[in-house]
Amino acid sequence: MAAPRHHRLRPRPPAPAGEPGTGRAARVLASVAANVTLLTALLYFYGLLRTQEFFAYFRVHYTLLGQTADEIFGRGVNGLLLPIAGAAGAGFLVLGLIRTLRHRLSAPRWQWLLRVTTPVAGGCGFVLIGLTAPVAIEPALFSGFAGLPGLGLALGVVLLAVAWHRLGASTGHRRSRMSVAEWVSAYTLVAFGLFWAVSDYARATSLRAAYETAVALPTQPAATLYSAQSLNLAADGVREDLCAQPDSAYKFRYTGLKLLLQSGGQYVFLPADWRRSRGTAFVVPRSDKLRLDFAPPKAVPAPAC
Predict the structure, then answer these.
(1) What separation, in Å, do the N-terminal and C-terminal C-alpha atoms of the chain show?
(2) Is the dihedral of CA 125, 128, 134, 136 positive or negative?
(3) Three-state secondary-structure class, residue 74
(4) Which of 305, 289, 157 has its CA nearest to residue 227?
């Protein structure tokens, strides 16, 4: 009788491990997508508030103008370009300083620096977050510092989250580190602080821009509006003339106007001597029955059209 054969069991080959950089690349892409989305929302939010506040200064409701998303977004980019550049530059300098210190200092001194700065960052974060409470209750306290309360809240949350993360990493326990829910909560608070800052900054800059526009009206080109029908534009400094030519396509002429904006099929005109205390703004629908002429600011219109 033949002896039974014994077969050696070969161990199964290990499952192929994923690419070492795949997880990190996914996290980087998710972070970039989230931050780009937040930045886009902030730019549009600023542009929308800037549109509302700017035209409200001239007593024109922004919904009448039919502003497109491109116009609102472009206004947001124009208004936040310098603040974003300043914030990015400051962040780049801080990160560069951290990298320089990490390479220049020895490992013991670097660890000592982290132990000292971590509680300091956490304390500063608590102070900044605590300062936002009286501002939320009484906004007039920081009315002269547009955007600072919101930025203080966002920076305080960032400092507190970094300190919390560093303390968890120093203990070596995985449970001591911030969880996904905590990171999401921190990100939400930072976003809230940024929207708060953008809201305050938009209102302050919009009022200043509207005031400067009103002051500069006398230096803007003089607009002469021709119409096939009477528009009944009555205001101080605005003159209506009836054209004498019987075969003229435009029977009425209006002088003493300044064009503020043309958008969404609407013209917004202001009297040349517009004042906020008594000025009137005219919203005129754009049509083929209208014609616009522009002349130097101090040009005198012809006596007859």
Answers:
(1) 127
(2) negative
(3) helix
(4) 289
* DSSP structure class, residue 293: E
* Distance set, CA 35 to CA 28, 127, 161, 162 (Å): 11, 26, 17, 18
Instruction: Answer yes or no: are the C-beta atoms of 305 and 243 closer than 8 Å.
Output: yes
Biggest distance spanned by C-alpha atoms of the chain = 132
Using one digit for the tens of pLDDT, what is the confidence trace for 87-122?
Answer: 999 999 999 999 999 999 998 998 999 889 999 999
Which residue type does 46 have?
A: Y
**CA–CA distance from 48 to each of 77, 81, 153, 281 (Å)?**
11, 15, 23, 21
Question: What does the domain layout of the chain look like in residue ranges?
Answer: 25-215, 217-295
| Cα-based distances in Å from 187 to 86, 153, 155, 226, 279 | 21, 12, 11, 55, 45
Half-sphere exposure of 214 (CA within 13 A, CB side): 20
Task: Using CA atoms of 115, 116, 118, 120 in order, give the dihedral in degrees to the nearest 10.
Answer: 160
pLDDT tens track for 36-69: 999 999 999 999 999 999 999 999 999 999 889 9
CA-to-CA dists, residue 184 to 38, 181, 191, angstroms: 13, 5, 10
Helices marked H in 58-179: 69-104, 107-137, 148-171
Opening angle at CA 86, ends 84 and 89, nearest 5:
105
Helix/strand/coil for 241: strand
DSSP summary character for residue 166: H
Q: Beta strands 222-227 and 252-263: pairing type? A: antiparallel
Exposed e or buried b for every residue in 268-284, given b needs 16+ CB within 10 A? bbbbbebeeeebbbbeb
Euclidean distance between CA atoms 303 and 152, whole angstroms: 60
